[in-house]
Amino acid sequence: MVVKAVNSKDLKLNYPCSWEYKTILESHHNIKEIVKSVLDEREYSIKKSQNSKKGKYQSYTVSTLVHSDDDRKVVFEELKKHESIKFVL
Fold it and tell me: 65 with 16: CB under 8 angstroms?
């Protein structure tokens, strides 16, 4: 994957490429079920990141292959709008 920052808003990527999304949700939610419901038939991986100090929240890195800039943004928006996910980076 080649990433070039043209300016603070534009990225130049060579697609397809693997992309990572950092997701944050309450610890009692099942990340595997959530990601499967969002990404459906796509191949993906989930890596546990960190727990919040009191353990209420959990962060995960979700990686998947994206095929275009629009595809990358659609995945981001779909993860973001899921009711159990509090935040996506």
Answer: yes
Residue 44 has pLDDT above 90, yes or no: yes
- DSSP-H helix ranges across 1-89: 31-39, 69-81
The residues pairing with 87 across neighbouring beta strands, listed in sequence order, are 24
Q: Is the pLDDT of residue 7 over 80?
A: no
Strand 44-51's sheet: what is its strand order?
Answer: 44-51, 57-66, 17-26, 85-88
User: What's the mean pLDDT in 46-67?
Assistant: 96
Report yes or no: 84 and 26 within 8 Å, Cβ to Cβ: yes
pLDDT tens digits, residue range 13-28? 899 999 999 999 999 9
CA distances for 48 relative to 12, 16, 32, angstroms: 28, 24, 11
Residue 9: CB atoms within 10 Å: 6
